[in-house]
Amino acid sequence: MAWRRTAVAWSLLLTILAGGLDAGEWAAVRRVADGDTIELADGRWVRYLGIDAPEIDHAAGTAQPFGFEARARNREWVGSRRVRLEFDLERYDAYGRTLAYVFLPDGAMVNEALLQAGLAFCLAKRPNVKHEERLLRAQRQAMESRRGIWREWREAPGRYVGSRNSRRFHRHDCPEAKRILPKNRVVFATRWEAHWAGYSPSRECQPDAAIPFEPTPSPWPPPR
């Protein structure tokens, strides 16, 4: 009945306004900066929540391993398209960028897809952990299947120290590791173990920069 449909519609609207359901917003993508950052047509910058793609040094034209591949995949999937932005508890980061989970019209989450393809690390930073389990599950699938970053994994000797607060980890001899408060400190025997737990390497402890190259395009969706 019409009155019942109207009641349901009002109930849904009140739920959204109360914060019980994040309807998000639709926006057009102007360009893709790297594997986890895009610029919207209205000039806003968006940083993908829950992931950390390999860094690109735009001035030098170099990147960490798989940095250029991550940007290429991100560009294939969202470049010049309309996407839906879904938010978590924090709307902006320290640089003023909008923090969001990015969805395609077919419902696929790009943050998750990059993890599934092995082109980003899982990094669910509190308090923005709405999809933490989903994203970590995607990374573990890529690790088990040896996709992307995990394809030819090499371990370096030594222990690693992570922070439960930032979800970052460092080599045990890194000066930053010594600054982690005891209550937040967690020790991993290998980098693999740290990633499996959902921690991402600090910038000081990530791989060295690589020579740029043209990655081979891959279709949507990524392999599962």
Describe this entry's structure for a reader.
By secondary structure, the chain is of the alpha+beta class. It has five helices and 13 strands. Strands 1-2-3-8-7 form a five-stranded mixed β-barrel. Strands 12-10-11-13 form a four-stranded mixed beta sheet. The longest helix is centred in the N-terminal third of the chain and has 16 residues.
Keywords:
224 residues, alpha+beta, OB fold (Dihydrolipoamide Acetyltransferase, E2P), DNA Methylphosphotriester Repair Domain, five-stranded mixed barrel, four-stranded mixed sheet, 5 helices, globular, disordered N terminus, disordered C terminus
Biggest sheet details: 5 strands, mixed, barrel
H-E string: HEEEEEEHEEHEHEEEHE
Which architecture of the largest domain per CATH? Beta Barrel
Give me the count of strands. Answer: 13
Shape type:
globular
Radius of gyration: 19 Å
And the CATH topology of the largest domain?
Answer: OB fold (Dihydrolipoamide Acetyltransferase, E2P)
The CATH class of the largest domain: Mainly Beta
**What is the end-to-end distance?**
43 Å
Give the tally of structural domains.
2
What is the SS-derived class? alpha+beta
Give the integer mean of the pLDDT values.
85
Contiguous low-pLDDT stretches (5 residues minimum) are 3-21, 208-224
Oligomer: single chain
Tally the helices.
5
In the sheet with the most strands, the strands line up as 1-2-3-8-7
Helix content, binned percent: 10-25%
